Structures are given as structure tokens and as C-alpha cells.
Amino acid sequence: MKPSVLLCLALAAACAIPAAAREPGAHVHGAARLQVAVDGATLSLALESPLDSLIDFEHMPRTEREKSAVRAMAERLNKPGELFLPTPAARCAPISVKLESPLLAAAGKSDGHADLDGEFVFRCERPDALREIDVRLFAVFPHLRRLDVEVVSPRGQSASRLAPQQTRVTW
Ligand SMILES: [Zn+2]
After folding, report:
1. Which of 28, 82, 102, 112 could form a disulfide with 108 if both were Cys (CB 3.0 to 4.6 A apart)?
2. What's the whole-model pTM score?
């Protein structure tokens, strides 16, 4: 066996293990996951979503309609202050956004299924007042029906599930 073949097999095994170890349904169309971390004055949100939950396809955009759908998605996600509303008294403001997806890459590739990973960081003037986030993703992305949220804050850890009728995560 050539060394390059061995390398491919090793990589395939390395990739297969974390995928299998993930809880079932990590890539479920219509669902997404959000991790919320409160650390001092910093509120960090990590979103992991199948693209199908945000737009209605996961292949590289081909038509003008698909290209503009991808652009529109990125524009909405680049305004986290309109998507995530922390307790107003905590006076949080977004300071950074990072988006990662094969569909956003210049030479991206998608083999059937693809995700969008987003990192949104807020800085809060009164972090002690931070008790909840009203998540507006459902109104902006109607394909999204379910959001599994995990919160790690000075008050402990919690997990909850949001839906179009239940958009507030509290802790
Ligand atoms: Zn998919």
C-alpha cells in the first residue's frame, strides 16, 4: 500500500470517530444548536446549524437566486444585535462575528450536507444583569424549527430547547 493511501485511511478513521460519537441528529434539517457562554463581561454565542435550517439548500450556490440567498443569510448573521437580544439592562453590544461554511468560501465544496458555524461575541456593561436572550433566529430563518441551547454562566449550566413559539433562553 502506498503511503498516500494509508494517510487517507487514517484520516477517514479520524473523521469517522467524532462523527459517530456526536449525539444522533447533530445534523438535522430544521434544527440547530447554540452554545451560550457568559464569562465576565463577555457573552459568547456559538451557533452550529445545517444550512438547510437557514436556507433551503446545502450545495454550492449555482443560480443567481441561490447566490443571493447565501449573501442574504450572511448579511443577517453579520447583524447579531438583531438576532440575539440579551437582557436590555445588561447593556450588551456585539463586538465580533465569525462565520464559517463551505458555501461562504471562495473555493468551497459541499458533498451533500453542509453546516454553518457562527461565533458571535458581545461585550456587556452590566453582565450581572444578564439573565436571558431572546433568540430571533426563527423569525429570520423560517426553516429553523428547533434550537437546542446550552448555557454556561456564573450561575451554572443549563440546557433547553427553543422553538418558534418559545424564543427566550433564561438562566
Ligand atoms: Zn443536510
Report:
1. 102
2. 0.84
